[in-house]
């Protein structure tokens, strides 16, 4: 038990809830993944469906996960097990998802770190056309060792934050850098809107065309919402296990959800006008942002400064997310396997770095290797966001809505009756019926049952 209290002290004892949960949520999911997925799925209609998924399913689920975590004060596996033995599989699903996500997330984080370095040295400013940026990107990610170097560096940076317990420092810097990220995004979006041909991008992003929507679009939007909000995976369970008793869970969830969605929408407003202005296909996939952003900076005065600051902020946003993913696995190994916290952190770092290195090679020298028709990188991204997180979310709804003692849930949300929750009925309705039914229909439809 001594280890347990030590763990919780390592993470800074009681965490500032909104800050750390926002740190986990806001990341590459908002700025890299959201634009490419939205671009790939038709733009406007996707945005509408995405926002509905966030409000109707993401928000109730986040409150549910917070409740599970704070009610049990344990890692994701331990938390579900403590509440009901048979449900520990939900925790395992989360640990597995965290491992697989880190496998590609470290790689993309490494790309942002490399782009930051290239911004500082000015080498990114040498080019002008989108085609040039595209080949710069392709050359870079297919280099056999450079991206791996950055992947490893990023994993080590995450490791040391976790291991040294410099969480407080990260909290403090996130507090300053997060608002700065907003300011920079707003400035960039204004610049984007003024680019010639930008209007077309805005129409693409904001004018829904539902004729192109398929059930798979809805599942992709749902998966993106869960990915971006860090739910369905046990991150919010793990973090909430460190929350204070007086933290208002539903306010925290609401704030995190709003901030996270704002960042994603702003990223869309930055990216899409520029995509159309410089003539890139919005459906270019994971490379979309890495080709578009340098093209945006290029047309700006002081372009080096803008791109350095922006990629620096992106690195920090990615780091606060990788920390939360790493913590899910570390807390699990430490508490369930009784490893020391150090050993748990090192095991996590080593395993995820290895997976990351293979994922990095899979978009480069090993790109001919395509299990299930996708590169390992794409496969990790696809399987986690479109399968593991929705499945995790589905069973979380069933567990919290149907199995969990409703008094436990109520006590968590109202802080033992001291807070009012006027729409508790609606919340339960969404959690018990609406969310699981919609998800079930989506799964069945995507499996071709209908
Ligand atoms: N939400 C993070 C992002 O948008 C990624 C993440 C997913 C973090 C799941 C933790 C858990 O970048």
Describe this structure in words.
Helices cover 77% and strands 0% of the residues. The protein contains 19 helices and no strands. The protein has one domain (5-446): Orthogonal Bundle (Hydantoin permease), CATH 1.10.4160. The radius of gyration is 21 Å and the shape is globular. By secondary structure, the chain is mainly α. α11 crosses α17 (376-403), α11 crosses α19 (424-446) and α15 (303-336) crosses α16 (341-362). Residues 24-25, 27-30, 101, 227-228, 230, 233, 235, 321, 324-325 line the site of phenylalanine.
Strand content: under 5%
By DSSP, the count of extended strands is 0
Largest sheet, described in full?
none
Distance between the termini: 51 Å
**How many distinct folded domains?**
1
Secondary-structure element series: HHHHHHHHHHHHHHHHHHH
Task: Report the structural category.
Answer: mainly alpha
Q: How helical, in percent, are the residues? A: over 70%
CATH topology-level name: Hydantoin permease
- What do the pLDDT scores average to? 92
CATH architectural category:
Orthogonal Bundle
Low-pLDDT residue intervals, each spanning 5 or more residues:
1-13
CATH class: Mainly Alpha
Bound molecules: phenylalanine
The radius of gyration is 21 Å
Overall spatial form: globular
Number of helices: 19
Key traits:
mainly alpha; 0% strand; Hydantoin permease; 77% helix; binds phenylalanine; 450 residues
């Amino acid at each position: 038990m001594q280890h347990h209290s030590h763990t919780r002290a390592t993470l800074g004892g009681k965490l500032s809830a909104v800050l750390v949960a926002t740190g986990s949520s806001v990341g590459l999911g908002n700025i890299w993944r959201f634009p490419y997925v939205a671009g790939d799925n038709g733009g406007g209609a996707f945005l509408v469906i995405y926002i509905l998924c966030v409000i109707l399913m993401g928000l109730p689920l986040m409150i549910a996960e917070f409740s599970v975590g704070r009610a049990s004060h344990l890692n994701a596996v331990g938390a579900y097990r403590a509440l009901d033995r048979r449900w520990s599989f939900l925790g395992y699903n989360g640990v597995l998802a965290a491992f697989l996500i880190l496998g590609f997330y470290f790689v993309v984080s490494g790309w942002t770190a490399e782009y930051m370095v290239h911004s500082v040295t000015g080498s990114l400013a040498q080019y002008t056309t989108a085609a040039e940026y595209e080949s710069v990107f392709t050359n870079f990610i297919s280099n056999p060792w450079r991206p791996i170097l950055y992947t490893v560096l990023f994993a080590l940076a995450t490791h040391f934050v976790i291991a040294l317990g410099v969480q407080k420092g990260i909290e403090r810097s996130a507090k300053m850098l997060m608002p700065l990220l907003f300011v920079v995004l707003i400035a960039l979006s204004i610049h984007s809107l003024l680019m010639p041909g930008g209007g077309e991008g805005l129409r693409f992003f904001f004018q829904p065309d539902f004729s192109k929507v398929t059930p798979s679009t809805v599942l992709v939007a749902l998966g993106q919402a869960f990915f971006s909000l860090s739910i369905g995976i046990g991150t919010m369970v793990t973090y909430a296990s460190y929350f204070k008793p007086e933290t208002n869970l539903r306010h925290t969830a609401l704030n995190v959800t709003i901030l996270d969605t704002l960042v994603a929408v702003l990223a869309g407003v930055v990216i899409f006008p520029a995509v159309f202005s410089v003539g890139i296909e919005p459906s270019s996939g994971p490379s979309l942002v890495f080709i578009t952003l340098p093209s945006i900076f290029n047309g700006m005065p002081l372009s080096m400064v803008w791109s350095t600051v922006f990629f620096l902020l992106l690195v920090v946003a990615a780091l606060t997310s990788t920390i939360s993913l790493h913590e899910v696995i570390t807390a699990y190994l430490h508490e369930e396997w009784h490893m020391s916290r150090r050993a748990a952190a090192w095991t996590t770092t080593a395993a995820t770095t290895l997976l990351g290195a293979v994922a990095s090679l899979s978009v480069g020298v090993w790109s001919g290797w395509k299990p299930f028709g996708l590169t390992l990188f794409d496969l990790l991204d696809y399987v986690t966001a479109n399968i593991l997180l929705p499945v995790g979310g589905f069973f979380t709804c069933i567990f919290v809505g149907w199995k969990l003692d409703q008094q436990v849930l109520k006590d968590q949300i109202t802080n033992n009756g001291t807070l009012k929750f006027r729409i508790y009925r609606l919340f339960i309705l969404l959690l018990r019926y609406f969310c699981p039914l919609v998800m079930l229909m989506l799964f069945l439809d995507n499996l071709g049952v209908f």
